[in-house]
Structures are given as structure tokens and as C-alpha cells.
Amino acid sequence: MFARISRKIIKMQISIWEKESFYAPKDVIIVGSGLVGLWCAWHLKKNDPTLSVAIVDRGIIPTGASTRNAGFACFGSVTELVEDAARFGEENMLQLVEMRYKGLQYIRKVFKPVTIDFELCGGYELFTGNEKAQITSLDHDIEHLNTLLKDITGRNQTFKRADKKIAAQGLHHVTHLIENKLEGYLHSGKLCQALLQTVQSMGVTVLNAIEISGFEKQNDHIELYTNQFVPLRTSKLLICTNAFARQLLPALDIVPARGQVLVTSPIENLPLKGTFHFDAGYYYFRNLGNRVLLGGARNKAFEEETTTELTTTNTIQQELEHFLCTYILPGYSYQITDRWSGIMGMGNEKLPIVKEVSPQVFCAVRMSGMGVALAPVIGQRIAKLLSS
To answer: What is the pTM of this model?
Structure first.
């Protein structure tokens, strides 16, 4: 026989100490503790150290894309940039490249390479010989982009052919290779950690495991509604939840895009070194020490991958494994030790959305899979916008 337990919903009581510190009204509350939210907090406090800033996140750690990406420090492959120019216009493409490039320089300025495992190892784009239209115009595209990007990167040759490096990189069934020596990789988890520790040292309050279900303007402030029944009040609200932003701002042009990843076991004498793109950036891989990290292939199942579900699927994982054993590691013995997914924020346009949505409510979202590079520059823009 079991005793019946009477259950009551009890609203958590807040102490005076909590009310006047952690839950005290803030000048700015940022929703989302990923790279964009962290860089926004960094710039806000750097511009005005007296500003009271809090970051609120529903997860224990950032779990959208910031800590679940491939760890690339890149600003766009040749075919991706050509495709972007054709789809969104050359001016928009160049604006994006400049933002990404400046963002990468900012990361290197703020953090020592050893802190975030940053290495300027070079970026590459590969072709298998089946991309006849792209290969035909390859030299023209490289020359044209190099001319356009010269003022951004300061280099006469941002991109160059590197077919002679195909064998040295251990690639198979690859006919052409383009190299960009200005790209590299980093440890996105360590970057998030370093940013988090830095903003906390600047006086930013970080509240985890609190989900914002809504907000309402009351007199001169914004009242936030949460799943923890804690009082959160701010003068200005900043939404930085990227692909998940429509949960709070349903009118935004944002579409979630899941990116799936796998990692192999260590491979003795792995020749692969650098960051690699294929198929206009839909496939991406790199060495992770002596392991291989491979992600992407969502263009094989666009509808299925337009989701906020943080799961992996047989469709994409099998495609990734096929790509791995065909082009990167044929004949090697290895196991897949890790699989995961992250959610990117896409839309009908590729430029980020950085604006005031309504009085005292702002957003910085839609990073289109380039949040690592874009976040530092977006943070600058937000700090300027909120201070105006």
C-alpha cells in the first residue's frame, strides 16, 4: 500500500539578497549565452563598464550552434561566395565577407591562440571532377574574387589553386584544390568558455537553466516571463537565440537548419591538415589532432534538416560516412566515436538581422552558419545600437 502525497504548486520565494543581486533589474538582459550573446555582452561592458548586464539561457551551457559546430575560423569558400553573389548580390556578399574577416581578426586580438586552440592552418575547397560548370569557370572566379577581396584581406591572392597539395593531404578522387591561407580552426567550446569567464569578470551576471517564455513592456521597463517564476526586469531586452529566436519574435525571417557532425577515432599518421569545404560549403571537414571531423550534407535532405531537433539521423550520418570513406579515409581502419548536431539560423537573406524590433527590444540573429566569425562584429553593432 502506497501513501498518497499531497502536491502543491509553491511559488519559489526570493530572498532580499537574491532580489538585489542576481535578480536585480538590469540595464540590458541578453537572451542566449552563445557566441553572439557573449560578444554582445563583452562589447556592451567594454563601452560602458557601469552598465548592468545579464545573460539568460535555458540550457546549462549554450546548445544551439555555438558549441556544436565544426570549429572553423573561415569567411567563405570560392563556390559559396560565387553562389552568394549570384543569389544575394555582389555588394551583400562582400559585406558579409568583410564582417566575417574582421570578426576573425577580433578573436585573435582578444584571445591568445593557446587559450582557444586557434591555428591558422589554411582553408581549402575541393572538387571531385563532377562539378563541370564550376571547374570551367574556376580560374575566372578565383581571379575575380581576389580582385574584389583585395581591399578586405590586404592580399593580392586570397585564393589560389593548390592541386599539387591533393596527394599530400591524403585526399582521394579529388581533381582540384583551392587554398586560402587566411583561414584556420579553433576550439569553439574553449572560445565560449573564455568569453564566458571574461564577461563574468567584467561584471556580467549569467543565469542558466532559465527559459524565457515571453515578455511584456510595462511602463518604462520590460518584464520577462520565465519557467522558474523568478522576477526578471530590464530597461532593454536583446534576443540572441539565433535559430530559436522566432519562439519569442515570430515575425522574424529565420529558418532553422540542422547541421550534423561526426568524429573518427585517432588515425596514425593522418596526413590531413586544415579546414576543408566541398559543394559550396554544404560539406565541411578538418583534422582534430589525428582524428577527422566531418559535417554537413543537409542539402541531401533539406526538408528533414529544417528543424530545431538536436538529434542525428541515419540519412545524413550514412551520407557523411560514405563521403568520409570515399574522399578522405578510403582504406583506413577507424571507428566513429562521436556524433552530434547543432542548429543554425538561416533565412531568405544571408545578412544577419541586427535591429530594434520594438521599443526597447532588440535582436541579433540569423548568422547563417558563420556565427564564429560574425559574432564579434555583431557585438560591436549591438553596443552602438543600444547606446544610441
So the answer is: 0.94
